[in-house]
Amino acid sequence: MIASIRRHLVSVNDLDAADIEDLLGNAAQLKRDRRPSPPPLSGRVAALIFEKPSLRTRMSFDVAMYELGGHAVYLSPAEVGLGRRESVADVARVVSRYSDIAILRTFAHETMEEFARYSTVPIVNGLSDLEHPCQGLSDLFTLAEAKGRLRNLTLAYVGDGNNVANALVLCAAKTGLRLRIACPEGYEPDPRYLARAREEEADLVIYHDARQAVDGADAIYTDVWTSMGQEAEYERRRHAFHGFQVNAQLLALARPDAIVLHDLPAHRGEEITDDVMDGPQSVVFEQAENRLHMQKAILIALLGRING
Q1: Cα separation of 236 and 121, whole Å?
Q2: What CA–CA distances, in Å, run from 194 to 166, 169, 199?
């Protein structure tokens, strides 16, 4: 049975190693039993407040609430206008009166933190410019499911030091995962995240050569080179990331049984080639499915209990 985690999940830092272990175990249980009976979140309401478009985050949380017996209400940018049409504090106060939990997908991490300060119901970070904890936790679940362990497993992350990379840095620090990050100079993860991980004695190395990071790795992870909101930087980034594509030649440097991850959406032909993404070592779509199961575990940890 899962123990309740802290009031909000704004960052992976809101969890300790025991919390993550509980979430991983319960995500596995919920994957085996997608519709537990009686439904643990019967009558509960989740507000999905999104400033950015989404496929996986929106659908997985919506389906998660439905399969757990609850209901999700989606609120688009036009309907809310966080900080523009209405102050973040006022929206948080109103949403707290209508729902049991709020999942936010925001441009600025500061918006997430301000909303959490004024909310009287739990807040889940469904993505901000700084961190993507739901993705990072789902990635841990995918790795553990495929490899049977996390400690001393070597994950090579090849690409931009973005919000997903920041989450993985914290996840590695709390689980004993060996993390090797390969990116061009100037595109490293946020220094605050690197410093926090090193304070926790994470096994973390930054490379500026993808081949060095991938050599002997158990898993390779990549993400888009240009994220939402960075479209004006596309040409500069495409040039900077030359040599960081996950292709058959790079994959051959990893262990023969290495798996390949991508959090999607993918820019095929840029950060990853079709033959790798659709190949036998890819777990990309299993990884996408696992968002649903991990987010169920998160919702229950904040709102209820798994039956049994």
Answers
A1: 42
A2: 8, 7, 9
The confidence band for 2, taking pLDDT boundaries of 50, 70 and 90, is very low
Range(s) of the chain covered by CATH 3.40.50.1370: 12-131+291-303, 134-288
Q: Each residue of 163-183: pLDDT tens digit?
A: 999 999 999 999 999 999 999
Question: For residue 267, what is the DSSP state?
Answer: -
CATH T-level fold of 134-288? Rossmann fold (3.40.50)
Q: SS3 sequence, 198-236?
A: HHCCCCEEEECCHHHHHCCCCEEEECCCCCCCCHHHHHH
pLDDT (average), residues 109-113 = 96
**What integer is the mean pLDDT of 80-106?**
93
Which residues have C-beta within 8 Å of that of residue 180, sequence separation ≥ 6?
A: 154, 155, 156, 157, 204, 205, 207, 212, 213, 214, 217
CATH number corresponding to 12-131+291-303:
3.40.50.1370
What's the pLDDT at 192? 97
Which token pair is 283? Answer: 């777990």
Q: For residue range 112-156, what is the model confidence (pLDDT) as tens digits?
A: 999 999 999 999 999 999 999 999 999 999 999 999 999 999 999
